[in-house]
Amino acid sequence: MAGYRLFGADTSPYSFKVRSALRFKGLDFEWVARCAANEAEFRELAKTPTVPLLVSPEGKVNQDSTQILVILDRAHPEPAIQPDDAALAALSLILEDYADEWLNKAMFQQRWGQMPDRDAASIRVLVQINGGKRPRAYKTPAKQIAQRMLARLPLVGAEGENAPALEASYRQFAQLLNAHLKEHLFIFGGHPSAADFALAAQFQQMLTDPTPAAWLNDRAPFVVAWCENMADPKAGGPYASLEALAPTLLPLFEAEVARTYLPWANANGASASCQKKRFSVTLETGTFEQATQNYAARAFQKLRDKVRSVKEADALSAFLKDAGAAEFFAEPSRTKQKTPAA
Description:
Layout: E1 4-8, H1 13-24, E2 29-33, H2 39-45, E3 53-55, E4 61-62, H3 65-75, H4 86-112, H5 117-129, H6 139-152, H7 163-181, H8 194-206, H9 210-219, H10 221-230, H11 242-257, H12 261-273, E5 278-283, E6 286-291, H13 294-309, H14 314-322
Parallel strand pairs: 1-2
Antiparallel strand pairs: 1-3, 3-4, 5-6
């Protein structure tokens, strides 16, 4: 039986996320760099114009990186990419969604919202489209790519008004993660998880952009080393206990995840449920306003359901409470209906 085929791009963090997981599991796959030459085949397979696109040996197609990791883990249980411990697995899912839906905003803003990063990235995209070669007449198409991506900033909430909050957020997270990785090979000990694949993919992209790369190399060397390791990760031991991880893991949640991503995700979900086009949320850095993201709202609701299903685990409940995150996963209140008068 033939192996997997992964249509991806070197400028796509979600492609990196899936490729790293395939490598970790030791699965046979073909990396198909999406370009003009294979665009017709890609469009024939794709339901959306985005990568990654994974074709299974049976011919099934999936373009959702989170779903792909779950499917791979079910089809190929060893080595696992989620801890057996319910509390650690839930925390891994929270960090995965943080990476996919919040940290990605910072990555996108750092790449396309400033110079010289935007010009450098536009040339990389052009080379990618052209099958790995820079065309002779590259300046005009590269400028068109840059302008198109600049126009997309508001769609993902990375417009200029939000840039200071996003930059402060990713830098604080990186420094807290750096302190954690100084003590642990991966986020949950000696074994990578979905959180590692998702978070590393975003930081790996930042390391290709001049401005965030310079900052990360200077301020977060353990994060940089971890990113290099996550390109083709190998387990160095078992998952650790939550008790052993808490001293450096809890600050990640308390000082960053619970103060930026969770309030944002909660507000975005509420906006989507009311079918509003825009929403705003007050963070410690000020007001954060953007267009409602319906996919992110659905993803957060699924995350909430999964976390709530294991919330009876005392260790998870205590950790979320200590992190100031418990309220975002509380069961929705149910208003008692009054019995009509006879």
